[in-house]
Amino acid sequence: MLLARRNCAVPPLFELRRELDRLFESFGGESPFGASQTRAFPALNVWEDGQRVLVEAEVPGLALDDLEILVLGNELTIKGRRPTLTGDNVVYHRRERGTEEFARYLTLPTEVDADKVEAALKNGVLTIVLPKSAKARARKITVRTA
Known about the structure:
Blueprint: H1 12-26, E1 44-48, E2 52-58, E3 67-72, E4 75-82, E5 100-107, E6 118-122, E7 125-131
């Protein structure tokens, strides 16, 4: 089926579905209306090497002062605030970028050393380096003969 493109706002039913998808996702579930069009913010990449866990978060337009990073055991929290443009003459014609406060909670694959965590922000990408705790690192065991 071919759909014609029109110069009009998003049809009300599509907008309602998008809002319902966001509502269901905010409670940690999937939307019963099919695949969601929304994504969690910020988008994350998480990986590990032998000594650390690394997290990248896309936070375009935010400064370090807009972000808060918390670590406890193997839990990482990234909080932030994206200000809303307001004023007497401000009229939005389309508003797809999230505003106000946000938070992402992530269970890391291993416990990390919170005292050695480092974070850097460059070109809208927040990189968090989380060294594994001493008890979570692999150790070489010497085998003795009996």
